[in-house]
Amino acid sequence: MNLDWKDLLSQKIASGEIDREEFIEEKPTQAKEPETIEVILDKKGRKGKTATLAVGFKCDENRLKEIASQLKSRLSTGGSARCGEILIQGDRKEELKKLLSEMGYKVR
């Protein structure tokens, strides 16, 4: 009788000689695609003062605050972070786009 490797494997699994879990293939992990962040200027509700918003973060609030802290420090300006967006005081659109790109985010 001529058995191929699949038959031999099923016999060994059926007899309990080896566990089935040992032969379950792991799916390759896909490379995480960077988040797409939109950078916009906003004056609405700020008494005419300009603010730059980075919208579209999908991380938790703690991570968002860390990112905002790094950006505010590098831009030497104030700002805040909440609800998936970072607010930077002033018209810093181009500088913010550059910094976010350097941090690995896809920016529009």
Describe the structure.
This protein has about 110 residues and is of the alpha+beta class. It has a domain at about 35-105: 2-Layer Sandwich (Translation Initiation Factor Eif1). It has 3 helices and 5 strands; from the N terminus they run αββαββαβ. It has helices spanning about 5-15, 60-75, 95-100; strands spanning about 35-40, 50-55, 80, 85-90, 105. Strands 3-4-2-1-5 form a 5-stranded mixed sheet, with helices on one face. Strand 1 (about 35-40) and strand 2 (about 50-55) form a beta hairpin. The radius of gyration is 26 Å and the shape is rod-shaped. The protein starts with a helix and ends with a strand. The mean pLDDT is about 85. This is Translation initiation factor. It holds the Pfam family SUI1. Keywords: Initiation factor, Protein biosynthesis, Translation regulation.
List keywords for this structure.
alpha+beta; rod-shaped; 108 residues; 3 helices; five-stranded mixed β-sheet; 33% helix; Translation Initiation Factor Eif1
- Count of individual beta strands: 5
Distance between the termini: 65 Å
The portion of residues forming beta strands comes to 15-25%
CATH architecture of the domain at 36-107: 2-Layer Sandwich
| Structural class determined from secondary elements | alpha+beta
What ranges have pLDDT less than 50 throughout 5 or more consecutive residues?
Answer: none
What coarse outline follows from CA principal-axis ratios? rod-shaped
CA radius of gyration: 26 Å
What is the residue-mean pLDDT, rounded to a whole number? Answer: 86
Instruction: Look up the CATH topology of the domain at 36-107.
Output: Translation Initiation Factor Eif1
Compressed to H and E, one letter per element, the order equals: HEEHEEHE
CATH homologous superfamily classification of the domain at 36-107: SUI1-like domain
Number of separate helices:
3
CATH class term of the domain at 36-107: Alpha Beta
Helix content: 25-40%
| Biggest sheet details | 5 strands, mixed
GO molecular function, one term: translation initiation factor activity
Protein name: Translation initiation factor
GO biological process, one term: regulation of translation
Keywords: Initiation factor, Protein biosynthesis, Translation regulation
